[in-house]
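Let's do one together. I've listed all components of the complex below, 638 residues spread over two lines.
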Amino acid sequence: MSSFNELVSFIRTEVNRDLKRLPFPERPVYLYEPIRFALRGTGKRFRPILVHLAGRANNADPDSLMKIALAVELLHNFTLVHDDIMDNDDMRHGQAAVHSKWDDSTAILAGDGIYAIAQILLSGLPDRANAICRSFSQATLEVCEGQALDKEFENDLSITEDQYLEMIEKKTGSLLGACAEMPATLVGADKEVIDNFDKFGRALGIGFQIHDDLLEIYGNPDDMGKSLGSDIAEGKQTLMVIKARNQFGKEWGTIIADPNAPNLMDMIRSFFTEKGIKSETKSMAQSYFKSARESLENISDINRDELNKFVNLVENRTY
Amino acid sequence: MSSFNELVSFIRTEVNRDLKRLPFPERPVYLYEPIRFALRGTGKRFRPILVHLAGRANNADPDSLMKIALAVELLHNFTLVHDDIMDNDDMRHGQAAVHSKWDDSTAILAGDGIYAIAQILLSGLPDRANAICRSFSQATLEVCEGQALDKEFENDLSITEDQYLEMIEKKTGSLLGACAEMPATLVGADKEVIDNFDKFGRALGIGFQIHDDLLEIYGNPDDMGKSLGSDIAEGKQTLMVIKARNQFGKEWGTIIADPNAPNLMDMIRSFFTEKGIKSETKSMAQSYFKSARESLENISDINRDELNKFVNLVENRTY
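Okay, and this is what the predicted structure of the assembly comes out as:
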């Protein structure tokens, strides 16, 4: 394993350890048992790792970075717990979603509590807590806007690529922007530097999400592919689906005409590959990763080595 | 109208005006339309009024006070929007609850968005934003704990008065404590002063809630009394119900044996009056209002006149 991979792995372990050490009271059981459960899942801890790496590039105080990193992971989990209710998803991070293990009320309250704990953590920052809280809360609202667009887009067959990109920038990019930018804010960097970190994180987040769309289609074992095929036939929107619909409307309509067709997922995969949609989508992801690297280049006086390696890691991930 | 009532009325108008002026974007419609709707209801604005009055006692900056007041009202509305889903309540502040006008997903997201906006407002405070954010977020978590206890207590016939009091302190008292304490925190008051303001607000909040239980039983027109009677027979917990169950178990059981009995609410009212439960409950509310006034007496160098008048107003309210 390269020393960079070891570093990432080390940060993940530390984040998981500190998440477990958060001093949750035992009671009320109704609140804290599902909170502990939700945070026990096997998340990739992608966002807190980005906070730490961006912090190292800025020589920021590690203890403050850990507070921000944990707050970001809590915010991410709060949105997942609530999104899983809204989207009726029953599994999350290798275990039952909170609303399916308990019920909707429990999951609503657990999400609210997780987010309040995130804000309490941030308010304990010794320096520039004010500016960090602003970034964090603005990112939260933007994530809510992204989820709102996602709900609006459900079953709307007129959605364009630009609308889809706006949605994923808000839903995923805004928080990655905040992860990359808050450590610079913490050390009192210039506005231009902070803006470039934000742009870097946003581009990385959009690239991450498009790459995720590709992995979902081409990286899945067949048994998962089956339900994905019918989800797509029934209106699930991804960048590739939008491209297929807008560029090859009639042919695409034939492919997904029967949600229960055997080999539906194979047909969809072949269609995307033959029509050049797969390669077009890959190029788009690459262009966002390139743009992330360019934003880093615009920041002088930092060590961008680890952040560039992190972009590589995201770009090449296969799970 | 007394000049104090005019002051309260003036503050309420200003709070309502500034709530309407919050710069919500038009879109995503899925997020901002229900948020605007929820904030349009006819709330009493009890909490932001307390913030302003406690701020006047501390000679705090009115602009900062308004930010805190709005944040507190937003937090309160966020909890109402979510609680109405959990408790399946269809009406709120004279109009449909968000989840019943739209659906649960819309209401979950609207609540989340309202709370994020509250935090954004607070992060714009010019001074001591850090300490204010901490109080605010800790109060949020305690309100969640209170709601969790409330859910745990549903249909649990072993709940004691002390458990009920703990629940309403968390669910209502903690936020009123924060309303009273944050203005002192804003002006950099000593810890002892801040603690006394917090105690004042908590006692006021507990008294307010017990008074509310009384108003619900004795202040309701008959048509509302009908559903309340069957709610009580089916397990709704209030302080008076707990007293009746624990002091007069068998007789009380006979009273509520039939949730559909005609005159059920009249029978419950007479029972509470004849058994001395009504007067006992009134005394308890009074003792909390007294304790609130005593906490104020412990704070030197402030003008406590308006806050005492506010306690009177809460104590004598009939709606």
